[in-house]
């Protein structure tokens, strides 16, 4: 059984990657272990409920959103290899060490609507190389393709770390000693699937191509797709993407007609991009229905984006339906 502590130096050496990147990943994953301890205790640690504050995106913060954010920031600020960080819960980026070579972007706690009802939540992270020169917002606005590593930690029935350094995807499970132990290597997502994930309550607000797509899936065997589809919606992206990594499926959060200034709900930099890198590395696909997610040129730290990701046949089918849109 390989622990993360053994895996990282081996993997870095095998692929000629810098030790400093491994060091940043050690800090991120150690912070996630600390977050895990809080999540696990819930009411016993007094961490449930609202924080009584809001973030820059106008969302109410839960206590655990704030605690997870503080744990990650504190840990990353203490790592000299971290040049700067950006978080869902911070208005703008936080500068760390002038000579730090890496930028860490994260959603400290994803799926916060599930915290108080004891349903899986997670942490999502994306790592970029810091460009030369003074750190500005532009330093972070790199295409997803530029990520040097990405991952998530799922605080579910088991606590699991899923990690990619662009040489496949690796899955680790937290053991009783607090070590991540490799439990699966290189999972692959089947191109075809019969399972989709979408918040159906938004149906009336979707654009016509998404309306058509979901109608086709719901028509099942009798419809043009010629097979029955099952649906799942946890409302935690980490749980959803983990299910897709394990057994296939397609996950969507389409653009909503209600607010044209918001092209979707999910955020490009610390939700869509890291998940897209993981899925692509596992043979899946990800797009905003018009272009590959990882090729989008970001324009803002908290930019929102329409999301279609998972089994490659479904993502291609969705892209095709949007061709004349
Ligand atoms: P966050 O808790 O970080 O704000 O993200 C929640 C996201 C994502 O995890 C999930 O897929 C989606 O919001 C759920 O949205 P609905 O509440 O509209 O179902
Ligand atoms: Mn989120
Ligand atoms: Mn969040």
TrEMBL record:
Question: What region holds the Fructose-1-6-bisphosphatase class I N-terminal domain?
Answer: 4-184
The keyword Cytoplasm appears for this protein: yes
| Predominant place of localization | cytoplasm
List, alphabetically, the PANTHER family matched. Answer: FRUCTOSE-1,6-BISPHOSPHATASE-RELATED, SEDOHEPTULOSE-1,7-BISPHOSPHATASE, CHLOROPLASTIC
What the record notes about the co-factor is: Binds 2 magnesium ions per subunit.
What's the superkingdom here?
Bacteria
Residues annotated as binding Mg(2+) 1 are 88, 107, 109
Checking SUPFAM superfamilies in the record gives: Carbohydrate phosphatase
Which EC class is this protein assigned?
hydrolase
| UniProt pathway annotation | Carbohydrate biosynthesis
Where, by residue number, does Mg(2+) 2 bind?
107, 110, 271
UniProt keywords (A-Z) are: Carbohydrate metabolism, Cytoplasm, Hydrolase, Magnesium, Metal-binding
Reactions catalysed = beta-D-fructose 1,6-bisphosphate + H2O = beta-D-fructose 6-phosphate + phosphate
Taxonomic classification, please? Bacteria, Pseudomonadati, Pseudomonadota, Betaproteobacteria, Neisseriales
What Enzyme Commission number(s) apply to this enzyme?
Answer: 3.1.3.11
Positions contributing to substrate binding: 110-113, 199, 265
Q: What is this protein called?
A: Fructose-1,6-bisphosphatase class 1
Enumerate the subcellular locations listed in this protein's record, separating them with semicolons. Answer: Cytoplasm
What does the record give as cofactor? Answer: Mg(2+)
Family in the record: Belongs to the FBPase class 1 family.
Which HAMAP family does the entry mention? FBPase_class1
Q: Which GO terms describe its molecular function?
A: fructose 1,6-bisphosphate 1-phosphatase activity
The answer, when asked if Magnesium is one of the entry's keywords, is yes
Q: What region holds the Fructose-1-6-bisphosphatase class 1 C-terminal domain? A: 189-322
**What is said about its interaction partners and assembly?**
Homotetramer.
């Amino acid at each position: 059984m390989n622990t993360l502590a053994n895996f990282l130096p081996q993997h870095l050496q095998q692929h000629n990657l810098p030790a400093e990147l491994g060091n940043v990943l050690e800090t991120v994953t150690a912070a996630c272990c600390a977050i895990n301890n809080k999540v696990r205790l819930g009411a016993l640690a007094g961490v449930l409920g609202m924080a009584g504050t809001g973030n820059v995106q106008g969302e109410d913060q839960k206590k655990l959103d704030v605690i997870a954010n503080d744990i990650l920031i504190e840990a990353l600020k203490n790592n000299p290899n971290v040049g700067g960080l950006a978080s869902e819960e911070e208005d703008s980026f936080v500068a760390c060490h002038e000579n730090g070579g890496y930028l860490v972007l994260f959603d400290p706690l994803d799926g916060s609507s599930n915290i108080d009802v004891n349903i899986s939540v997670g942490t999502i992270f994306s790592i970029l190389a810091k460009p030369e020169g003074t750190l500005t917002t532009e330093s972070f606005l790199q295409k997803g393709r530029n990520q040097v590593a990405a991952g998530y930690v799922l605080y579910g029935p088991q606590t699991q770390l899923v990690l990619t350094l662009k040489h496949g995807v690796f899955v680790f499970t937290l053991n009783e000693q607090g070590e991540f132990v490799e439990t699966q290597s290189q999972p692959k997502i089947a191109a075809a699937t019969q399972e989709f994930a979408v918040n159906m309550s938004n149906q009336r607000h979707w654009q016509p191509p998404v309306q058509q797509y979901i109608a086709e899936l719901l028509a099942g065997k009798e419809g043009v797709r010629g097979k029955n589809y099952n649906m799942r919606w946890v409302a935690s992206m980490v749980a959803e993407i983990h299910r897709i990594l394990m057994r296939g499926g397609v996950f969507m959060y389409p653009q909503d007609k209600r607010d044209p200034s918001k092209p979707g709900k999910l955020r490009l930099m610390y939700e869509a991009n890291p998940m897209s890198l993981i899925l692509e590395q596992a043979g899946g696909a990800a797009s905003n229905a018009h272009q590959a997610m990882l090729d989008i040129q970001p324009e803002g730290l908290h930019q929102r984006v329409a999301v279609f990701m998972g089994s490659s046949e479904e993502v291609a089918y969705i892209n095709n339906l949007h061709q004349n849109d």
